[in-house]
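TA notes. Do not distribute before section.
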Amino acid sequence: MKKYLYIGLGLLVVGLGALGVVVPGLPTTPFVLLASWLFYRSSPRLQQWLLASWLGKYIRNYQRRGGMTPAQKAGAVGIMTTMVLLSAFVFIPAGSIVRVIVLVAGAMGALTVLFFVPNAKNDDL
């Protein structure tokens, strides 16, 4: 039962990670890393599929470096902030609850990258 729960959750977070590539404020790396962990615990075949997919580069970079460099974090947060603010204040009407949701999701994504994704061991990578 636990195996199937992990597989289902893994597939869900792979989808969230893939969405994070294009949706402002939704991080990619934490979701892809969580999916890798879930697949490692439940399905080696799905973990190999994830590593071989286009999302696998996030896992390989993270494993090789042990995290993200401060410059990568700053770049990711800068792009996320730009896209969130553009989305919230240009494309979403004032007074909409969707604007609040986008701003909160963006803040959560930025905080995740800044405080929960470890710094890379070597800045020169």
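Switch to the second chain here.
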Amino acid sequence: MATRNLSDYDSKKVPDASNMIFGIVVAEWNPEITGALLDGCVSTLEKHGALPENIHVKTVPGSFELIYGAHQMTLNDGYDAVIILGSVIRGETPHFDYICQGVTAGIARLNTTSSVPVVFGLLTTNDMQQARDRAGGRLGNKGDECAVVAIKMAKF
């Protein structure tokens, strides 16, 4: 269980993002959740100076495809950081485990082989309410957190 609000951070410790370009790859699966994550992410990037024209959003069908989308962005588009946003909710089959493990391994691999940081914004929850709580609900918005991480990693 999350122990803090995902949208809680010291804004004085976030670098200026006005000269940065961000790629965001969003899964279309669970659109109520991924849309809220995207809204939080974009608004936080803009709050810290990112220009709307320097925030490029692409969609992929599901969370597993986030790996491919992020990889393409690290290769082709001159981004300072790439953010993946998705939501996988546990069901009755082991599919949840395979998707979560695959995406985690794929994004970890990108971070060790690419010169562009890829920020992991995949919610992996047991139910829809837990996802809502982390996508603008009582625990804040993971999209906000990912935006802050992307800015800091781009400055790294």
